[in-house]
Amino acid sequence: QVRLVESGGGLVQTGGSLRLSCKVTGINFRVNSMAWHRQGPGKEREWVASITSGGSTNYTDPVKGRFTISRDNVYRILYLQMNNLKPEDAGIYYCHRPPNGWGQGIQVTVSS
């Protein structure tokens, strides 16, 4: 059974950086595409970034150039490096293993 555990969230000022981590167990991590999603206050959950098993990446337009998704197949960890954070980036961030594997979510707060 897949288990996804996020860490690294917290409070940061506008313009600051955070790196989220997601430890993955219960699956053959290296052959799976993975993703990050987020849900802002009063908003629907939205896709943020994806990475394939081969390392190809995609991003939603608002985070392009600021966020980087990466993976460590040895330690089975998914990362999201977030730079130049903006108040609109605040929310709960979820690690996702399609189609239905989700982490519990981790809070990111960006103060203006």
- Runs in which pLDDT lies below 50 for 5 or more consecutive residues are none
Number of strands: 11
Number of helices: 0
Residue fraction in strands: over 45%
| CA-based gyration radius | 13 Å
Element-by-element helix/strand order: EEEEEEEEEEE
Mean pLDDT over the residues:
97
- Biggest sheet record: 7 strands, mixed
Structural class comes to mainly beta
Overall outline = globular
- Helix coverage percent of residues? under 10%
Describe it.
By secondary structure, this protein is an all-beta fold. Helices cover 0% and strands 54% of the residues. The protein has no helices and 11 strands. It is globular, with a radius of gyration of 13 Å. The mean pLDDT is 97.
Kindly list the characteristics that best describe this protein.
about 110 residues; mainly beta; four-stranded antiparallel β-sheet
Structure described in brief:
With 112 residues, the chain is mainly beta. The chain contains no helices and eleven strands.
